[in-house]
Amino acid sequence: MSGLESRRRFVTVVATLVVVAVVAGVGYGLVSLFFGAPGSRPPATAQAPSGAPTPSASTPALSHSIPTHLSIPAIGVDGALQQVGVDPARNTLQQPAKPAQAAWFKNSRTPGQTGAAILVGYISTGTKTHGVFAKLGALKPGGEIRIARADGTTVVFAVDSITEYAANELPTDKVFANTAEPTLRIITCGGSLHGGGKTSTNVVVYAHMTATA
Prior knowledge:
- This protein has two helices and eleven strands; from the N terminus they run αβββββββββαββ.
- With 213 residues, it is mostly beta strands.
């Protein structure tokens, strides 16, 4: 499956998802993750979101390499990355098995490639277990995100914005737009940026690559 076909399939999955189960032992879990606007479908031609950064000659795109570790110093995130895909039996996004770790959606770009890399994870699980992004409210535009890859490189991203959406109002055209430069989207659920646990919202962090190490 080509990269474009994979992205189109993912957007379709996101836009039509109706979650009917919760990971065993997680409680609230990802019941609100990836709800799209009812009846929405991927655009015929995806456009980069307005205000997207332009490519920089000093940070050329990288080739494919699996992300292995995520660090966001401002909110205390520092740990290994899981991988999730699409559940073929239900055509829904698989749920991260470990709430305390973020996951890379393996049908998206790898961090540093041209286009959008997608990470997912919990803010709150609805139990005593905190999600990996429990402190996401402290992250601000300009904040640094570092993702290590299997090839030994580390990709550095800068946060452009953090937006909270009602569960049925996720703007799939913007979140999953094709981009001409390496970008990152972190999509979370299971809580609100402003505190609280069982809220049906999605939070999206938009970021662009600034350097490699």
